[in-house]
Design goal:
By secondary structure, this protein is an alpha+beta fold. Helix content is 30%, strand content 43%. The chain is built from four helices and six strands, in the order βααββββαβα. A six-stranded antiparallel sheet has the order 2-3-4-5-1-6. The longest helix is centred in the first third of the chain and has 14 residues, at 24-37. The radius of gyration is 15 Å and the shape is elongated. The chain starts with a strand and ends with a helix.
Length: 124
C-alpha cells in the first residue's frame, strides 16, 4: 500500500448565489469558519476581488492550504483543500459550505499527492 505526503480534495459548488460569492468579506468569513469547524490551524489569509467580477484567495493553514475561486457570473465556486493528513472529516464541512453558498449541489474529487514510493525511487 502506498503512502502519500498530501491529500487534495477539490470541490465544485454549482448554482450558488452570485451576490454572496462576489464578496471578499463573505468568502473570507465563510472559509475561516469552515477551517475552524474542521479544526484546521489558520496561519494567514489573502482574499482578492477581481474587476469587474470574481474572488480568489487562499487560507494558509499549518496543514497546508484552502484555495478558493469564484465565478459569480456562472454561480460557481471552486475550493481546493490540500492537507498533509486526513485526520479531519470534510463531509460535514462540505454540507455546511453548500448551505452558506446556497449551492444547488456540489461535486468532490480526491487526489493523493506525493507518492512516497516514487519519491524514494527518484531521491538523490
Amino acid at each position: 500500500m502506498n503512502s502519500f505526503l498530501g491529500h487534495q480534495t477539490t470541490v465544485d459548488f454549482y448554482g450558488c448565489t452570485a451576490e454572496q460569492i462576489e464578496s471578499c468579506a463573505f468568502i473570507e468569513t465563510v472559509l475561516l469558519e469552515a477551517a475552524r469547524m474542521l479544526k484546521l490551524t489558520v496561519v494567514n489569509t489573502t482574499i482578492h476581488a477581481f474587476s469587474p467580477i470574481g474572488v480568489s484567495g487562499v487560507i494558509v493553514i499549518e496543514e497546508s492550504h484552502i484555495a478558493v475561486h469564484t465565478w459569480p457570473e456562472h454561480n460557481y465556486v471552486a475550493i481546493d483543500f490540500f492537507t498533509c493528513n486526513t485526520s479531519y472529516d470534510l463531509s460535514h464541512g462540505l454540507e455546511w459550505l453548500k448551505a452558506q453558498f446556497k449551492a444547488a449541489y456540489f461535486k468532490v474529487k480526491e487526489i493523493k499527492r506525493g507518492d512516497l514510493e516514487e519519491i524514494q525511487q527518484y531521491k538523490a
